[in-house]
Task: structure prediction
Amino acid sequence: MRRVVCPGSFDPVTNGHLDVISRAANLHDEVVVAVFRNTSKTPLFTIEERVDLLREATSKIPNVRIDKFEGLIVDYCKANDISAIVKGLRAVTDFDYEMQMAQMNYNQAGVETLFVITNPLWAFLSSSLVKDFARFGGDVSGLVPEVVLDRLAGRLAQG
Ligand code: PNS
Result:
């Protein structure tokens, strides 16, 4: 079985993430979407909330599973029999950092990274921009799945 992982913070999941996840799912037997617990950042959504949002948003893709991890992604790959990491590349601005990470992960653990070029529809999109716009009353419908839109409004209303 060819199992790959799409790692990320997913705070929150956007339509850009879903594009990469669904395309990875078309190409592999199983895609594990692994939500990173980053202890040095304060997220808008807890890790459990991010996992739940991803579960709902990917519920129609049968070969996608959601999990969470902390520590190194290469250790997660080894522990879960995962052969490669799949990442989206939005623009050249993503490239330098992603290349370094991919080379480090291959150098340290022999884990490959596969890149999906983001659909131009979502090339500008990031979780941070969605949060910034939504926080100041911007309309982010069409950029995130419905379930995120509902939860985002509620969370930001709490202040
Ligand atoms: O959605 P993000 O925040 O851009 O995702 C970044 C993420 C979680 C994919 C990346 O930071 C990562 O893989 N972190 C796990 C820790 C790790 O393995 N770091 C070394 C990478 S060379």
Observations:
- The first strand starts at residue 3 and ends at 8.
- The beta strands are 3-8, 30-36, 64-69, 84-89, 112-117.
